[in-house]
Amino acid sequence: MDHGRHDNETASGGPGTRAASNAPGRRARASGRRAELGAFLRARRARLHPADVGLPEGDPALRRTPGLRREEIAELSGVGVTWYTYLEQGRDISASAQVIDALARALLLDPDEHRHLRDLAGLAPPDTPETPSGEAERPRDRLRRLVDAAAPNAASVYDARFDYLAWNTPYTLLRHDPLTLPPGRRNLLWMMFTDAGNRARMVRWEPAARALISQFRAAMGHRQGDPAFTALVAELSEASPEFREWWADYPVRRFRPATVAIDHPEIGRLDLEMFQLRPAEHPDLLLVLQVPADEDGRRRVTALLDGRSAPDGDPGGAPDGSASQGGLPARRPGNRSHPG
C-alpha cells in the first residue's frame, strides 16, 4: 500500500473525507429502514382480528382503529408497550433476533413476511429455510432438476454451512463424488481439506482452499453461536493442520470471479470458470457452476460424459489416477476465489 498517497488523500479531501461525508447518507438510509419497519408492523397489526390470535372479540365499537391494539401485540410477543410503540414509530431503538421473531409469531407472519421483517430490522434471514405453504414438492427434488439441467457444466448446491444438498454427474466426474464422504461429513470444507484425491487433482490447491475458508468465515459471521457451525470448525481444526492454522488467521473474503485448474486423469488439464448464484426462494442456499473455460475443454468434458476417450488421444493420465505434464498445456495461475 502507498501510505503516503493515502495520507495525502485524507488530508486533502480524499477517501477519509469521503467516508465522513457519507455518514449523513448512512443515517438517512437507517432512518428510512426504521420508518419502513414501523409501517410494516402497523399494516400487519391492522389486518388481524382478536379471534385470529385467541383473544375475545369484545365490542367492535370500542375499537377506534382496525386490527389489534399495540398493547395486545406487545403482550402476545412478550415486549413492553412503550418499546413496541417506539418500534412502530420508527425510533432509533435496537431489536434482537429473539424479539423480532416473537413479533413475527404474534403477527402471524408467513415465511416471506418473516424474512422481510428480519431484513428491515437489519438481521440475517431465519435459520431454517422455510417452504411456503402449498408448495407440494420437496425442495431437494427441485434442486436436483436444476443441477441436472446444468450439464455438461459441473453444478452443486450447498446450504449455509456448505453441506452438499445436490450435485450432478459432471460434478462427480470432474471434481468429487460427495457420496464417498461419510454421511455426517458430506461438506465442501471436509472435501477440500481432507480428501487427498481432490488435492492431487487441483493445480493450485492452497489458494483455492484459502479462498474457501475465507468465504466460510464470512458466512459464519451471520451464524454466530450456531452450534452446527461451531462443531464443524472444531472438527476440521482437529482433522486438518492447514485449516487450523489458516482459521486462526481470521481470513474474510467474499466470492470473486475465478478460474480453477484441475489435472483430470482421463481428459487432462482443464480450466473451469466459477460462478455462484442463489435461488430466490432459498437465498441461504448456494449454487456453484463450474464451466469449461474454452470450447476445447467443453468438448472434452462432453466426451467424458458420453463415455468416450478425449478426441485428441491420451491426455497423459496415469493408471494411478494422477496426471503427468506430458502433452498438457502449461499451467496458468489460478484465482484465489474458489468455492466448489
Write structural notes for this entry.
With 340 residues, the protein is of the alpha+beta class. The chain folds into two domains: 118 residues, 434 Repressor (Amino-terminal Domain); 167 residues, 2-Layer Sandwich (Beta-Lactamase), CATH 3.30.450.180. Helices cover 45% and strands 10% of the residues. The chain is built from 15 helices and five strands. It has a five-stranded antiparallel beta sheet. It is elongated and about 80 Å long. The two termini are 31 Å apart. The N terminus is likely disordered. One of its GO terms (molecular function) is DNA binding. This is HTH cro/C1-type domain-containing protein.
Terminal residue distance: 31 Å
Order of helices and strands: HHHHHHHHEEHHHHHHEEEH
Which fold name corresponds to the CATH topology of the largest domain? Answer: Beta-Lactamase
- Oligomeric form: single chain
Roughly what percent helix? 40-55%
Q: What is the count of DSSP helices, taking H or I runs of 4+ residues? A: 15
> Uncertain runs with pLDDT below 50, 5 residues or more?
1-15, 129-137, 309-336
The CATH top-level class label of the largest domain: Alpha Beta
Count the strands? 5
Q: Round the Cα radius of gyration to an integer and report it.
A: 26 Å
The number of distinct structural domains comes to 2
Major β-sheet strand ordering: 2-1-5-4-3
Structural class: alpha+beta
- CATH architecture annotation name of the largest domain: 2-Layer Sandwich
Summary tags:
single chain; 340 residues; alpha+beta; 434 Repressor (Amino-terminal Domain); Beta-Lactamase; 2 domains; five-stranded antiparallel β-sheet; 15 helices; 45% helix; elongated; disordered N terminus; MLTR_LBD; HTH cro/C1-type domain-containing protein; DNA binding; Cro/C1-type_HTH; Lambda_DNA-bd_dom_sf
